[in-house]
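On clarity, I found the account of how folds are encoded harder to follow than it need be. What matters is that the chain and its backbone geometry are given together, residue for residue. The format is easy to grasp once an entry is in front of the reader. For illustration, here is how one protein appears when written out as sequence plus structure tokens.
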Amino acid sequence: MSPDLTPDSAAESSPAEATDAGSTDAGSTDAASAVASATSTAPVRPAGDLDSGSLTRVLAAGAQDVVIDYWTADQATAWTTTGEKNLQLSAHVEGGSEEDTEVLVTRFVVTADDGVSRTVAVEDRGEFALMRPFSYSTAFTVPESAPTADAVTLYVQFDLLVETEPGSQRYYRQTVLDTLELPLLQEASA
């Protein structure tokens, strides 16, 4: 018993007040349970490589590095299986002992894998200069995914021809691979 209450004042409290106080607590408990249950059933989306809007990767390619900058103007955290997912990238070469060594991109390909199917999102063939001061830049759209997909994995491949020494016109092949994870939000069933 509280020191401010006398036995008489404690007895004066009405049973209705006690019931009202009890029902308020029960109502609060029920509401908290409903919120906790709704929160726990919502799927948690893992972090994706482009959630911040951009990403830079530095990948070894022989004596030099290929630096790839990826970005999107879209809100990557809101991507679903439907709708466009537009990406851009720019790649350039850094390092290496010979600045005049010719580096060519002969094939660039991005394959999208949603766990159900694989689709080529973009493929480019030719002989594109990649050595300083040049870069390889492109934009592409990731195709729609299977309705049950919860992520799309992008497999990025650059096939390079690297000159063995400046002016030799002799080349060796170097393949550079990268992977991007793009989690998808599940769309509500209609």
In short: Residues 7-41 form one domain. The first strand starts at residue 54 and ends at 61.
